[in-house]
Each structure stands twice: as structure tokens, then as C-alpha cells.
Design brief:
The chain is α/β, with parallel strands linked by helices and 392 residues long. The chain is built from twelve helices and 15 strands. The protein is globular. It folds into two domains: 143 residues, Alpha-Beta Complex (Aspartate Aminotransferase, domain 1), CATH 3.90.1150; 225 residues, Type I PLP-dependent aspartate aminotransferase-like (Major domain) (Aspartate Aminotransferase, domain 2, 3-Layer(aba) Sandwich), CATH 3.40.640. Helix 2 packs antiparallel against helix 9, helix 3 packs parallel to helix 9 and helix 10 packs parallel to helix 12. The longest helix has 27 residues. It binds D-malate. D-malate (MLT) binds next to loops. It catalyses: (2S,6S)-2,6-diaminopimelate + 2-oxoglutarate = (S)-2,3,4,5-tetrahydrodipicolinate + L-glutamate + H2O + H(+). Belongs to the class-I pyridoxal-phosphate-dependent aminotransferase family. LL-diaminopimelate aminotransferase subfamily. It holds the Pfam family Aminotran_1_2.
Amino acid sequence: MKINENYLKLEQSYLFSTIAKKVAEFTKQNPDVRVIRLGIGDVTRPLCPAVTKALHEATDEMGIKETFKGYGPEQGYAFLRQTISEYYKGHHTEVSEDEIFVSDGAKSDLGNILDIFDADNTVLIPDPVYPVYVDTNIMANRTICYMEANKDNNFLPMPDYAVDADIIYLCSPNNPTGAVYSKDQLKEWVDYALAKNAIILFDAAYEAFIGDETLPRSIYQIEGAKKCAIEFCSLSKTAGFTGTRCGYTVVPFELKCGDVALHSLWLRRQTTKFNGVPYIIQKAAAAIFTPEGQQQIKENIEYYKQNAALLTEALTELGMSFIGGEHSPYIWLMCKSGMTSWEYFEYLLQEAHIVGTPGSGFGKNGEGYFRLTAFGEREDVEEAIKRLKALK
Ligand code: MLT
């Protein structure tokens, strides 16, 4: 037996597991201290009433012989795919229900999609970045090219025609920086991908946080994108599904490599390795897209955006430099002068009992930066602000 030795090239533990371990050690040593967690982007608002109602009803259906469901369609139930297709119309985008694959979240599909691409492809990944893009490619021993995201380009790297890439990762609104591409910028990426015969893996997990109609919520708002992009979406942050698990991936029919439609490959992969998302969860997900569900999730998103506004206001008052927090739940700030990301992590944990995420955990360009999330409870955010101000 031989193991996949590529796993040995990975950091010993996943970023958020390392942080959780450090925080657990701290709380063990300081059991009376109230630690405020603004680290991992996990939601705190409960599921909205439309969702829990659907969960209850679907659970009851499962207990009745006539309405019980066994295996469902691997691509997801039509009732959910239809409703997602309608949602896309709201972004002035046509995505057919058959181009939508219901998933258990963007993270799994972002990793799993690599099954349909040769290990010989070169991937282009921004730095800093959501660690999943890097780790899943290391696991497959793919060559990774990094593109610099830094304050000179507002953390929004643009295509460089001197670089030949096959698979390009873009995330907008961005995790970890909160930066958002404009339509013109995304058009440059689409043009580049088409010119290079490359594919864009577009992570739109935070699209619901965009509050400006002129900013793209889907890459398919850009002409030509259906020929070069797969889009990954998640209900985790949109509707509090981090523990409930549901998302969707769009693989357009027009997307081809030579004569081969990627849709067929992904369908083949999913039908072989995936048995679909539970019926109950898909019913809950469909409830999000009803007018009532949309209204309720918007209230939660506004709550988080208000948290972000309070945090960014406080950082401004403190004279700290940051980006994000406007169309994103993430605020990307520069560490206190001269501190590395992990030094700042320790400093905030020890002195203010606040947990954030060290920027260097997202890549070398993240060194000297720190990420705060706006997913906390209001009371905690207000307390964190008090503590940050007291540190000055
Ligand atoms: C994060 O904190 O970056 C996210 O929670 C990670 C994720 O969505 O998997």
C-alpha cells in the first residue's frame, strides 16, 4: 500500500483547525475569560422561520408511506433547481435548471470539481486566498501559479497575458479580503480565460452580501462567461446553512473542452460519487427562495452587515487601515505596526480576548494582515469594539 504522498506536502493542519486548537488551549487556561470569536466565518443567526417550517413539514413527509423519499436525483430535486434558476433571473442572468447541481456546500464542490480536470493543468490562484483552493490542488499534485493580491491592486489581481493558466480561481466578494470585482474587471478575466482556453472556477459564496446593483453577483452576468466558467454558490452564509449544508454549482451546457461538455463529465462524476443532498434539506433550501424566505434571510444579512459597519467605523476611529466589510462579511485589516499576523493573533487573544484569523494563514501576501468576520452576535461585536478601543 502507498499513501497519496501529496498529503504530506500540506500544512500539518487546516487553518481553522489550528486556530480552534489555540483558542481551546487559551480557554482551558483562562476558564473565566469571555472570548469573542470573530475568526472562522461561521454564522450565529438561527435558521429563519420559513426554513424551519419547511424542515418540519419535510420531516413529517418522510414519516408517511405515501410521501416518503428514498434516493433522490443526484443533481438535486427539480423543485429546488427551478427555484434557483428563477433566482438567477433576478440577477438578470439565464441559468437553466438543468445546468444547476445541488450540493452540500461550495467547499465540497470546489474540491471535488478537480476530479474532471487532468493533474497536468496549471492552476492560477490569488494570494491571499481561501485555503481550500490551494490544499485541494496540492493533494492532486497540480502546479500552482500564484497571482499577487495586495494593497497596490486593492487585493483584486487582474490577468497577466504572460502567464499561461488552465484553471483560474476567483472569489468575489472575496474571502478573506472582502474585495469585490466590478463587471469590467470580471470581463477582463472572462476575456483572458477565453483567449487562453482556460476555465474560471468562480466562488460566489458571498454574493448575497453585495448591496450595489452595479456589482456582479454572478459571473454569468458577464458576456462570454458561460463558455469559460463554473460558478459555486453556497447557502451557508446567505441563509445560515453552515450546519445544515446546502449549496449549488452551475456548469453551463456551453462549457466545453474541445468537443467534450464539462456538464456531462460533472454529471458522470456526481452520479458515481454522490447520492445527493437529503430531501429535507432541499425542501429547506427551496424555502429560502420564496418571497417570505428572501425577506427573512435579508434581515439576517442586514444584521451581519450592520455588525460590519460597526466594526469598520471603530477601525476608522482607531486610525487602522482596512478593506472589505461593505459588500462582504469580512474585514481585512493591517496588523498593529510591525506585528506579523500570528503575533497580532496572539496579542488580540491575550490582551483583548478576541479571536480573528491571521492573514498569513491565507497566503504569503496575507502576512501583516488580519481578518475579522461580521458573523458574530451584536452584543459580542459591541464588546469587541470596546475592547479594541481600550487597547489603544
Ligand atoms: C471562513 O472562515 O473562511 C469560512 O468559514 C470557511 C468556509 O466557508 O469553509
